[in-house]
Design a protein that fits this description.
There is one protein chain. The chain has 33 helices and 31 strands. The chain has about 750 residues and is α/β, with parallel strands linked by helices. The strands form nine sheets. It has a six-stranded mixed beta sheet with strand order 5-4-17-16-15-6, with helices on both faces. It has a six-stranded mixed beta barrel with strand order 24-30-27-29-28-31. Strands 11-8-7-13-14 form a five-stranded parallel beta sheet. The chain starts with 16 loop residues before the first strand and ends with a strand. The protein binds ligand MGD (2 copies) and molybdenum atom (MO).
Length: about 750
């Protein structure tokens, strides 16, 4: 490979992840965003006891009391927010919305922080400044005019604090709808749907301390070197103490292979690094269910052998008998699945799967971590439940050093759910609101993300309010989504920076600019703290300290309260102004609705905050049966390629230089891609079979089975060591070939990582 001529910007990258490359990247970001002074002080306050919660990811901090934990991509997220660039009314005066539409996503956000409320004026095709009261009134009028509250959609992106999210769901429920599409619908919804059925709670069962005593860690479909860099500290430590780490991922992600910890002086001084994965299995995209059945089959076979030889076997029979249902059905299903099916769909050999199963059996305590590689498939929920089944064979739940660890996305996406952002309210939520506020919200099921888009496209929904995010760009199938959004009566975006969703103007369109995590939030009782919940159910305070980007910004809770007050007047007697004057009062109400938050204000003031109870961590199963359930996924996920060898399975990924739809720069350092994103990673043999050479322009076409072709032209082929049958490229660019109909029917999560496509040279 070394001597080959590669396309512009494509190189082999040999260094370990982390290390000096990461430090250099931070210095560059700081410079580009002109924030040297502001940014550096901000970095020092990230995840400190008296500081703010890093908006980068939801990985927990050791007690939230440690010294600054270096994180390249956390640093990017913070500097991106604390930039000195501003998108002022003057900026919007200079650029029409039609002009801005032609800009790249990078350039849109790079225009800087929005400084004042804006309303779209179609006569001049521009956003113009509007005062807050008028803005609230415009929204209130539009919402009041709808025939039914169910014609409105309330989207949430997972950055909102518990306080903002709680007020937001209270507003929508008091207004009269359960339409809560949220980023979780595109992310860990299979976790929120799958885990409750299996173990009675939709959250992970492990704590950060459990990683110190795990004997093996299995990692499925997540890329922590880029998306959860602080998790690398945990994996680095585990690896150094000899804990095997077994990875299932179609891509050889560099940080999972080897990592140099920037806080390790020896590794930095000697340019050395630590090997992370002890076994790395390049499973085919969409092959995890098969791989998991292979692992379980191997465990059951070893168990039977051991018993035949007079041993005690390898299953935790006490756990299975005492705590679970459905083991016999699981065993039948696994026995009925042939090794032939398992190996052809997973792309892994029986020997490989057996070697991983041996590590599993030898370990007394096992943790499984997983991310989008598991959830974003049309069988995402079944995938999650097979992870649980695998763990339960040896009782790896609810004890020290063992358990399930969904690695969450947005920094407070889990907290948003906990405080009521859900389109499927349960009785506890409804009863809690009635108890605390004296009115009973309705309990019918509202819209998730996919249903929202369909309702808007059909004209059933007419208003869209977005608490953060870039909904239209994050969804699959923009050619369907974009025109739909433009048909709305009203679209409202509570945001920090300009993005493409804001340019999809409706009859009325508003942008309401808010404070970011890093900024001081002063209300009438004084400076406020917010709270967030991390991936391990720890709730802690977050307090910004930078001067706000503009004096006209309001906090998210204040904006939500403003909208609610203008719309609802004094309906249900909720004192919106009072709640916002002092966030302790919002927290009192959170506690009143959700008793799990008892003594909220007191407990959250302790350094490090507190962990919400997760019953499954104590082997208490809040399922309908009161037991943990082995949920069988019959058969193996249908493999499109086995039906039509011309098809490939497309998976979409985040580069190292992006945060979801926010593109910080055009580089994906660890994968050796620089200055471009128009790439499709392909296996050499798949390229040859199609007569494609590296650098060739491609045509990618998905086949949703209806008459609407989804096509993308012009991206280049990059030869990459991934399994045959799998191809990969970047999100959100590739959303154009993902049909809206390709999603997990149980959770509604789009199958962003399992799209059957045809590929040819242009
Ligand atoms: N810097 C940064 N941090 C982030 C984000 C960001 O964009 N940038 N996004 C945040 C959000 S919202 C989220 S949800 C998380 C996302 O974090 P991750 O879950 O890590 O998300 P992805 O990068 O989409 O993909 C993860 C991995 O799945 C692998 N994969 C793809 N298909 C398959 C498959 O079929 N099976 C298996 N086993 N693996 C597969 C890919 O190769 C990739 O390594 O990160 C959060 N943190
Ligand atoms: N093909 C493909 N599509 C995907 C995925 C994939 O892996 N592949 N991943 C999916 C996943 S996991 C997710 S979570 C979604 C992400 O979907 P979203 O959460 O909707 O998208 P983001 O890109 O995180 O939103 C970025 C915008 O949030 C706003 N913002 C930033 N900070 C703040 C803040 O503090 N407050 C407010 N109010 N606004 C703020 C800014 O205006 C910024 O432009 O995308 C999904 N889409
Ligand atoms: Mo996410």
């Amino acid at each position: 490979m070394a001597t080959k001529n590669r396309p512009v910007g494509i190189r082999d990258y040999h260094a370990a992840a982390g290390g000096w490359g990461a430090l250099e990247a931070v210095a560059r970001t700081l410079k580009e965003q002109q924030v040297i002074a502001r940014g550096v002080t901000a970095l020092l306050k990230a995840n400190q006891p008296d500081g703010f919660d890093c908006p980068g990811c939801a990985w927990p901090d050791p007690q939230h009391t440690s010294s600054f934990e270096f994180c390249e991509n956390g640093a990017k997220a913070i500097t991106w927010e604390s930039t000195s660039k501003r998108a002022t009314p003057d900026f919007f005066d200079r650029h029409t919305v039609t002009d801005l539409w032609g800009w790249t996503d990078y350039d849109l956000e790079n225009s800087g922080r929005i400084t004042t409320p804006l309303m779209y004026d179609p006569t001049v095709d521009r956003y113009v400044a509007i005062d807050w009261d008028s803005a609230f009134q415009v929204v209130a009028n539009a919402l009041t005019r709808l025939d039914s509250p169910d014609q409105a959609e309330f989207y949430t992106s997972g950055r909102a604090s518990n306080e903002a999210a709680f007020l937001y769901q209270l507003f929508a429920r008091a207004y009269g709808t359960n339409n809560f599409p949220d980023c979780s619908n595109m992310c860990h919804e299979p976790t929120s749907v799958g885990l409750p059925q299996s173990i009675g709670v939709g959250k992970g069962t492990v704590t950060l301390e459990d990683f110190d005593s795990a004997d093996a860690i299995f990692s499925f479909g997540h890329n922590p070197g880029t998306n959860h860099p602080r998790m690398m500290t945990t994996l680095h430590e585990a690896s150094r103490r000899g804990c095997p780490i077994v990875v299932f991922n179609p891509f050889k992600e560099r940080a999972l292979e080897r990592f140099a910890a920037p806080q390790n002086p020896l590794e930095m001084a000697t340019f050395s690094s630590t090997d992370i994965a002890s076994l790395y299995f390049q499973v085919r995209a969409g092959g995890d269910l098969a791989a998991l059945k292979g692992l379980m089959k191997s465990v059951l076979e070893h168990d039977a052998q051991d018993i035949a030889q007079g041993g005690k076997g390898h299953l935790d029979r006490d756990f299975i008998t005492e705590h679970t249902n459905g083991f016999d059905q699981l065993r039948e299903d696994i026995e009925a699945t042939s090794w032939n099916e398992i190996t052809s769909v997973s792309g892994l050999s029986r020997v490989d799967l057996e070697s991983a199963a041996k590590i599993y059996i030898r370990a007394e305590r096992v943790i499984i971590c997983y991310g989008m590689g598991i959830t974003q498939h049309s069988n995402g929920t079944a995938n999650v439940q097979q992870l649980v089944n695998f763990l339960m064979l040896r009782g790896n739940l609810g004890r020290t050093g063992a358990g399930i660890c969904p690695v969450r996305g947005h920094s407070n996406v889990q907290g948003n759910r906990t405080v009521g952002i859900t389109e499927i309210p349960n009785a506890d939520l409804i009863n809690g609101i009635e108890r605390a506020f004296g009115f009973r919200p309705k309990q019918d099921k509202g819209h998730g993300a996919v249903e929202t888009i369909k309702a808007i496209a059909d004209g059933r929904s007419k208003a869209l309010i977005c608490l953060g995010g870039n909904f239209a760009v994050a969804m699959s199938d923009p050619n369907y989504v974009f025109p739909a959004i433009r048909k709305l009566d009203i679209a409202v975006h509570i945001a920090t920076k300009l993005n493409r969703s804001h340019l999809l103007t409706a009859k009325t369109t508003l942008i309401l600019p808010c404070l970011g995590r890093t900024e001081i939030d002063v209300q009438s009782s004084g400076t406020q703290s917010l709270t967030v919940e991390d991936s391990m159910s720890v709730v802690h305070a977050s307090r910004g300290f930078l001067k706000p980007a503009s004096t006209l910004l309001k906090s998210e809770p204040a904006i939500v309260a403003g909208l609610a007050k203008a719309t609802l007047k004094d309906r249900h007697g909720i004192d919106w102004d009072g709640l916002v004057s002092n966030y302790d009062l919002i927290r009192d109400k959170i506690e009143a609705v959700f008793p799990i938050f008892f003594d909220f204000n007191e407990r959250v003031r302790k350094p490090g905050g507190f962990r919400l109870r997760v019953a499954a961590s104590e082997r208490v199963w809040e399922t309908t049966s009161g037991r943990a359930e082995f949920v069988v996924a019959c058969g193996i996920h249908e493999d499109p390629i086995l039906k039509d060898p011309n098809l490939l399975v497309l998976t979409t990924l985040r580069s190292h230089g992006q945060y979801n739809t926010t593109v910080y720069n055009m580089d994906d350092r660890y994968r050796g891609v620089f200055g471009r994103r128009d790439v499709i990673f392909m296996n050499k043999d798949d390229m040859e079979a199609r007569g494609v050479s590296e650098g060739d322009r491609l045509v990618i076409e998905s086949d949703p089975g209806d008459n609407e072709r989804k096509v993308l032209e012009g991206f280049i082929a990059v030869e990459y060591p991934i399994p045959r049958g799998s191809i990969g490229g970047y999100y959100p660019e590739l959303n154009v070939v993902i049909p809206l109909s390709t999603y997990d029917k149980r959770s509604g999560t789009p199958a962003y990582k399992g799209v059957p496509v045809k590929v040819r040279a242009a």
